[in-house]
Amino acid sequence: MKSIVIGQYLPGQSFLYKIDPRTKLVAMLFLLVSIFLLNTIVLQLISFGVVLTILMLGKLSLRRIMRGLRPIFVLMIFTFVFQIAINTAGVPLIPSGYETMHLSPFSLGAALVWTVLWRIGVKTLRVRFWLFLAWVLGLYAIFHFIDIGPLWGTFDFQVYSEGVRMSVFVILRLMIVLTLSTVLTLTTKPTDLTQAMESFMRPLRVIGLNSDEFALIISISLRYIPTILDEANKIMLAQASRGADFTEGKLKDKIRQVVSLLVPMFIIAFKRSEDLADAMESRNFVPGKPRTRIHELKFGAWDLIALLFVAATFATSLVIAL
Amino acid sequence: MGIRFEHVSYHYVGNAKRPYEAIRDINLDIDAKDEFIALVGHTGSGKSTLAQHMNALVFPAEGTVRLFGATITAKRNKKIKYNDLRRKVGLVFQFPEYQLFEETVEKDVLFGPLNFHVPLEEAKERALRAIRLVGLDETYLKRNPFNLSGGEKKRVSIAGILALDPQILVLDEPTSGLDPLGKIQMMELFESIRRETGKTIIVITHDMDLVYRYATRVLVLEKGSLVFDGSPDRLFRRSKLEDWHLDYPQTIRVLKKVKETFGWNLDVYQPTCEEAFAELKKAVTK
Amino acid sequence: MVKENPRAKAGFLWYTMEADGENMIEVKHLSFQYTAKRKILKDINLTIEKGDWVAVLGHNGSGKSTLAKLIVGLLTPTEGEITIDGIAVNPDTVYELRKKIGIVFQNPDNQFVGVTVRDDIAFGMENLCISKDEMLRRIDQYAAKIGLSAFLEKEPSTLSGGQKQRVAIAGILAMSTDIMIFDEATSMLDPMARAEVMKVIRALNEEGLTILMITHDIEEALLAKRMVLLKQGEVLAQGSKESILKHPEYFEAARLELPTALKLYYKLKQEDLMTPELEATLWAFGSNM
Question: Which residues make Cβ contacts (< 8 Å) with residue A183, sequence separation at least 6?
Answer without folding.
Answer: A16, A51, A54, A55, A58, A60, A65
